[in-house]
Write a structure and sequence with these properties.
34% of the residues lie in helices and 37% in strands. The chain is α/β, with parallel strands linked by helices. Strand 2, helix 2 and strand 3 form a beta-alpha-beta unit. The radius of gyration is 14 Å and the shape is globular.
């Protein structure tokens, strides 16, 4: 399984994917400081994950079985066409970082991009969407 962590921040989602058995994981973030932190965290954890400064547009098409992103609802919605492009046919995305009031807007953007909402999960106000290509 290939996992892409877009907006990796500290790299915790990429690290978890690798430790849980993903065959390949790559991560990026548009913030150079976040990339430096992720590299440091990967080194401390003893995992070899390529991480780069970039955006979802830098991830090759049809390359990921799973995309994870814990970023703002505005970015998730804006990047909806990129999630579809990145995911392999039948691939899934786990998208989080937003509240219940954002679900309708985010879901509509994802569906317009040709993705299907497979599930909505949350605790208190926080939400996560599972999306399928």
């Amino acid at each position: 399984m290939t996992v892409a962590d877009v907006g990796t921040g500290s790299g915790i989602l990429a690290e978890a994917a690798m430790k849980l058995g993903a065959g390949a994981v790559f991560a990026n973030d548009n913030d150079p400081e976040a990339v430096a932190v992720a590299r440091e965290n990967f080194e401390k954890a003893g995992v070899a994950i390529p991480v780069s400064v970039g955006s979802a547009a830098d991830v090759p098409a049809d390359s990921a079985d799973l995309v994870v992103a814990n970023i703002s609802p505005a970015w998730i919605a804006d990047l909806a066409p990129e999630w579809r492009r990145i995911l392999k046919p039948g691939g899934r995305a786990i998208l989080s970082g937003f509240e219940a009031g954002d679900v309708a807007h985010v879901s509509a953007a994802l569906e317009r991009a040709g993705l299907r909402i497979a599930g909505e999960f949350g605790e208190h106000e926080w939400r996560m969407l599972e999306v399928m290509r």
